[in-house]
Design a protein that fits this description.
Shape: globular
Number of helices: 18
Radius of gyration: 21 Å
Number of strands: 19
Strand content: 5-15%
Helix content: 40-55%
Largest sheet: 3 strands, antiparallel
Structural class: mainly alpha
């Protein structure tokens, strides 16, 4: 297809030999000096502007966009749209200074967004995507309507937390408050405190933070004697329903939000819980196979290795380890994932570190490796991390660009696309690329916070 915003041949030539970028710090520094980072940042901005224009023309106010056909798919409701992609894009548009696009999205939210819908949503997905998206947009522009809508939606989610343990049900009806599915997991139990805590800070009502923290603590208190969490639990009884401990889904963002509660709110309880959980993971789950560092899935009570399969979503974890002070270990894990990206161009969703083969060949426009590179770079500004983000971007531009936007990969080995662009694409990697490359004037690189969904809840600069 024709590229409406062609990147220069210089960039493409510099993308060759990506596997060598981390061979030495000196080589990475030399390669970084050869890159026109400002131009690369502007290219990211141009792609965002083009893609959002396509969405605006063909699926305005819809949830997930279909960039091959120009259609749409509703999510998290099954039959009604809530403007998911639009809301997820807002703070990215703002920090990129795409002010006309941001204003159009804001107008839609103020005039058309209504959560009084008789329909069931995922508490976890709705929290991180819609509540978080509205809060980050409010952080960007200060419009009180955004805060009011975030609070209205959060109030509709809170009935899910009314369990004997404090761990939430997975689903709730936005109109009736009816709840469903107590069989949950660490991520869906513990990934709420950034959004609900921010809401408490902005409204002065502690009930949001308190509900989220109670759920975090309830999960932590059920860790095994060796400090690990399994990945399936009954929210009403607190009984474990599985034995697998993993740093991937459905546990991943639980550990992220323990650290985030400390980073964002200075909560020392969550800092202490993060340290205990991380120490157990480092003791019982680290493995090396042929050199690279991996984190195996293990039995949460014995530490026995259960599987050598890795989920692509786990590739965020190196950046989190670095944030928590384990920089050397975190860097080694991120580099393990980079070696897989170097082999396939785009990471497969599943990878077996023993066989060296993909176990799942799809990739749903995943941002996790770019997320890790960004978090590493914020901490030490090593050229290596910027180059990893650049390779991630150029690969996406080469293989994921479709007629009307950016598409999932149905098979990373054959580079066949799928007709879907997830809402998080607008919030996550496009923002990570921009912030990595562009020296963005609207972002505070010294004091900031991005949620698991890439929503900026701290760190926007206003003129």
């Amino acid at each position: 297809m024709t590229n409406e915003h062609p990147i220069s041949r210089r960039f493409l030539l510099q993308g060759a030999g990506a596997a060598a970028i981390t061979s030495t710090p000196a080589l990475a520094a030399a390669r970084s000096l050869a890159v026109d980072w400002r131009a690369l940042g502007q290219d990211v901005r141009a792609e965002m502007k083009w893609a959002f224009g396509q969405y605006r023309e063909r699926a305005w106010g819809k949830d997930d966009f279909k960039p091959i056909t120009g259609g749409s798919k509703s999510f998290p409701l099954k039959t009604q749209h809530l403007g998911l992609s639009l809301i997820e894009a807002m703070d990215t548009l703002w920090v990129m200074e795409l002010d006309d696009e941001f204003a159009a999205a804001l107008d839609w939210v103020k005039t058309s967004l209504d959560f009084d819908v008789d329909g069931e949503v995922s508490v976890f997905e709705t929290e991180i995507r819609l509540v978080g998206g509205l809060l980050s947009a409010h952080h960007a522009c200060g419009d009180p309507v955004l805060l009011a809508k975030a609070r209205d939606l959060a109030d509709r989610l809170l009935p899910a937390f009314a369990t004997p343990t404090g761990m939430p049900y997975r689903y709730v009806n936005l109109k009736t408050g009816a709840v469903r599915d107590a069989v949950t997991n660490p991520a869906e139990t513990g990934t709420h405190i950034a959004e609900l805590g921010t809401l408490s800070r902005l409204t002065g009502d502690a009930k949001y933070f308190d509900a989220a923290k109670r759920a975090l603590v309830a999960m932590y208190e059920r860790r095994s004697e060796i400090g690990l969490l399994a990945d399936k639990i009954d929210a009403t009884t607190g009984a474990w329903l599985s034995r697998r401990a993993t740093v991937g889904p459905p546990s991943d963002s639980y550990y992220e939000y323990l650290w985030d509660a400390w980073q964002l709110f200075g909560d020392r309880d969550c800092q202490a819980m993060y340290k205990v959980c991380t120490a157990a993971i480092l003791q019982h789950q680290q493995v090396r196979s042929g050199g690279p560092l991996w984190f195996a899935d293990v039995d949460f009570e014995t530490g026995a290795v259960l599987s050598s399969d890795q989920d692509e979503l786990s590739s965020f974890y190196g950046g989190l380890l670095a944030q928590g002070g384990a920089g050397k270990t975190g860097a080694a894990y991120t580099r393990a994932w980079v070696s897989v990206q170097d082999r396939f161009g785009i990471l497969p969703e599943g990878y077996d570190y023993v066989s060296g083969k993909p176990t799942i060949v799809t990739n749903a426009l995943r941002p996790e490796l770019a997320d890790a590179a960004f978090n590493h770079w914020l901490l030490d500004h090593r050229p290596e991390w910027r180059l990893i983000g650049r390779d991630h971007y150029l690969a996406m531009k080469r293989w994921n660009k479709a007629r009307y936007g950016y598409a999932d990969m149905a098979d990373v080995t054959t580079k066949v696309q799928a007709d879907h662009c997830p809402g998080y694409w607008w919030s996550e990697q496009m923002k990570y690329y921009w912030l990595l490359f562009a020296d963005a004037p609207r972002f505070d690189y010294g004091r900031n916070y991005l949620s698991t969904e890439g929503n900026v809840l701290l760190g926007f600069r206003h003129a």
